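Exercise 7. Predict the joint structure of the components listed below.
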Amino acid sequence: MSAAQDRITQLEKRLTLLEDRLAILNLIASYGPAVDSVDGDAVAAMWNENGSYDFGGDPLIGRDNVAALIDLDTHRAYVSAGSAHVLSNPSITLSGDRAIAVNYSQVFVKSGDGWRADRTCANRWELTRTAGGWKVESRTNRLLDGSEPARQLLSRSHEPDVG
Amino acid sequence: MSAAQDRITQLEKRLTLLEDRLAILNLIASYGPAVDSVDGDAVAAMWNENGSYDFGGDPLIGRDNVAALIDLDTHRAYVSAGSAHVLSNPSITLSGDRAIAVNYSQVFVKSGDGWRADRTCANRWELTRTAGGWKVESRTNRLLDGSEPARQLLSRSHEPDVG
Amino acid sequence: MSAAQDRITQLEKRLTLLEDRLAILNLIASYGPAVDSVDGDAVAAMWNENGSYDFGGDPLIGRDNVAALIDLDTHRAYVSAGSAHVLSNPSITLSGDRAIAVNYSQVFVKSGDGWRADRTCANRWELTRTAGGWKVESRTNRLLDGSEPARQLLSRSHEPDVG
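Solution:
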């Protein structure tokens, strides 16, 4: 019986790691639909209460301030023209109740008879397990325009300690 | 023993949810390779027998009619020019034997010395568990051109009841 | 007790299949950040010791030769201009200690006030389970320019036997 219980305990641990990964994949996949449908509540629900989003200027701090990005003139202009905030499949590093995810985000905007990539960014997400599921603690992105900051976000050597 | 069996039963339930998510991720990821290699059988295998695909005109109803899209002039022209039907990582909501997935699809077509996004759509997939695995019951997409229908597909408030 | 042990054994098998899928998803998602941050060690860590990467000319054979692609003039020029190597969600077929993954790769490069897709390829990955986790045994890609080789990579009928 003890051997069986050990196997069960091992299964529970391994399963939790997979649930964590899939929850984080799903969380990040919900960002684009939230902002492109101008749904501030859906954006807020992704972030932890004091979570932040730093996309190059003054960081937005607190989930309500992050959600308010849907009312920025630049965002309204994207949506009016026709926009897709496409986020790539992230590389995820789990560490207990914290996780780091690294991926790309692109904003495609209708232009003429097609869509052009108006933004292409490197992203680093710091995520945390809460009573309400995995949430974004901080998201930082920078334009991949050949300058150093974006490359640093993608680099393993600049990974903050998630332990 | 009863406690161990309860834990096993719980594990089986949790594992099935993860299997469902990964099956749906893999299903949606197989669409692009199927249509870009002009493989009608591979397209048909994704859909439920009476499943549908509505991309703006008259919906294609029934898996064979969906698969016939590979013979449309527009599709043949894409493939001849060089095309990639790229589908983003979906946000998935499971509900027993049904699921909703929301994501973006883009068609990149060779043009000059690069590839241009000829289509960029919001997608809502209704999926169902069958004896042959998860299949597409309906897929609806609309161009993200600034008009309302595409935004509605991305919006949580327009989610059909999957219960 | 025997029935419970059978259930545990089944759970272990099913769980391993999911771990394999998520490990492969994460592996492929780490390619872009590795090359766009010019981290040769991170590229090498993805490949098996004798693994290869064939992107149209002479294949790079051996993980060190694959990693050396970060020093190619074309790659350096991408990174200086500002580049995102974006890989789509793969369709994965598992077979024991081997797997095949099929997806798209695109290189977006800063150009004017946006980013253009300078490369759009069909990809077939052959992966293998090693003591150090899942690694790339071979990656083959071809430009989706309307010619046959790229379509063959996407086609099920050209799948090598992974058994």
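Discussion. Helices of chain C lie at 2-29, 31-36, 40-46, 63-67, 73-81, 148-154.
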